[in-house]
Structure formats: C-alpha cells, structure tokens
Amino acid sequence: MVNAVVLLNVERTQINAVAEKLADLEHVSEVYSVSGRYDLIALIRVMDVDDLASVVTREISQVEGIVHSETLLAFRTYSRHDLERLFSVGGEGP
C-alpha cells in the first residue's frame, strides 16, 4: 500500500467544489480544508506508485480550480488506528 499527501492551492471561490470533487475520487480517502499556505490537503491510498502517478496526473490534475499541487510520498505510516486494530479482539496482525 502506498500513501501520499497532496497539498493543494485552489482558486478561492472553488475550494468547496474542488474538495467535493476530490473526495469523490476512488483513491482519495480524505480531504481537509486547512489554514496556512495551502487550501486543501488530500490523502491518497493506492496499491503502488504507478497507481499514485495515475491518480495525481490523470485524476487530480483534471479537477478545475486547482492552481498548484505538491505531492508528498509517505515512506512509513505511524497511526494510533493501526495500533488499535492490531490489539483489538479478533484483529489480525500486519
């Protein structure tokens, strides 16, 4: 599994519309509107880097209203949710 974070600058009047379009994409697991340098953050989960390339270049780049994007590839995930799943009753290990 490959995880990535996409930082997005969006036309001010299009933030909500872009967020909704991104959230509808199959491999986008979450979209956050944020304060600071970027307007939106999209979390992507795919099977391999080829899938990531496709999502970023063929899907996200086609969403109107996006001015600039920066994609960060995650090397490793540290998550409380993973620990809870691992130690939950009936949960399976990695």
Describe this structure in words.
This protein is an alpha+beta fold and 94 residues long. It has 3 helices and 4 strands; from the N terminus they run E-H-E-E-H-E-H. The protein has a 4-stranded antiparallel beta sheet with strand order 2-3-1-4. The longest helix has 11 residues. The protein is globular. 19% of the residues are buried. The mean pLDDT is 90.
Give short descriptive properties of this protein.
94 residues; alpha+beta; Alpha-Beta Plaits; 4-stranded antiparallel beta sheet; 4 strands
Which secondary structure elements does this structure contain, and how are they paired or packed?
Blueprint: E1 2-10, H1 15-23, E2 28-33, E3 40-46, H2 49-59, E4 66-73, H3 80-87
Antiparallel strand pairs: 1-3, 1-4, 2-3
In short:
The chain has one domain: Lrp/AsnC effector binding domain/regulation of amino acid metabolism (RAM) domain (Alpha-Beta Plaits).
